[in-house]
UniProtKB/TrEMBL annotation:
Keywords: Signal. Residues 48-108 form the Neprosin activation peptide domain. Residues 88-110 are annotated as: Disordered. This is (rape) hypothetical protein. Residues 1-23 form the signal peptide. The keyword Signal applies. It comes from Brassica napus (Rape).
């Protein structure tokens, strides 16, 4: 019973530790893969703008936006103006608000 008990205990330890060790290797491999993908996605800002209230806005050229790295958008051309302006069928007319008191964001170049 001594040798059989030792063998069973050794097998139980192996079964318990095996997934832990394999999982560690897998997570290291995943972490390296994620880091390489993040390096590829990270774009340098062309210019940074700081507002009066402390906001920092990093400007990236429109063609270098991370959204255009998607495989379906690789050869996409950006349309800067609409190809046509639809005619309005609504009878609603906007009233001009003379007393607009909204908060405006003032951005300044550094």
């Amino acid at each position: 019973m001594g040798m059989a008990g030792f063998t069973v205990a050794l097998m139980m330890i192996g079964v318990i530790l095996s997934p832990c060790l394999y999982g560690k290797e897998f997570s290291d491999h995943q972490e390296i893969k994620v880091q390489s993908l993040l390096k590829r996605l990270n774009k340098n800002a062309l210019m940074s703008i700081k507002s009066e209230d402390g906001d920092i806005i990093d400007c990236v050229p429109i063609n270098n936006q991370p959204a255009f790295d998607h495989p379906l958008l690789r050869n996409h051309t950006i349309q800067m103006r609409p190809s046509f302006i639809p005619e309005s069928t609504s009878t609603y007319t906007k009233k001009k608000d003379k007393g607009y008191s909204g908060v405006a964001q003032e951005w300044k170049m550094p």
